[in-house]
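Changelog entry: the DinB family protein record was regenerated in this release. Current contents:
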Amino acid sequence: MNFNLNEAIEILEQTPKTLESYLANLSQGWMTSSEGEGTWNPVEVIDHLIECEKHNFIPRLQFILEAGEGEAFPPFDRFAHLNQSEERTLGERFSEFQTLRTENIAKLKELVDSDEVLEKTGSHPALGTVKVRELVSTWAVHDLTHISQITRVLAERYRKDVGPWVEFLGVLK
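Regenerated structure tokens:
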């Protein structure tokens, strides 16, 4: 196994800065592009990541440490961010994401203070028994998944414009 808590934290710490650097100065056309109906644009991905900071990984970690496998932790609504009507700037979103992530990494470091904690188990409502180590690994890979998703979405915007070069552009396959 490759999991290392400090390495996972490296990814978690970099994600807000990476996304802000990548997206902050892009035009509206880039920020509202998607891969089609039922997919998310970059702003919606940021909103989803903010929801995850509030209601997913740290709350589930705390639930595992308190309840163990005795009770399944509450399900997470992966689409809750789509029901928000609050208008915020991209800068406000990045600021909120960075603040929440910084707080959550501090909580993670406080809660997972030994290798033994990483092996504690809880009950996922759909997946069954899961370990803290698996939850934290998933959190880091979840970030990487959404960075990849945003890259795909941006590339998709120019799919028709690249003409025959599409065959050489793996992101468009």
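Residues 132-156 form the longest helix (25 residues).
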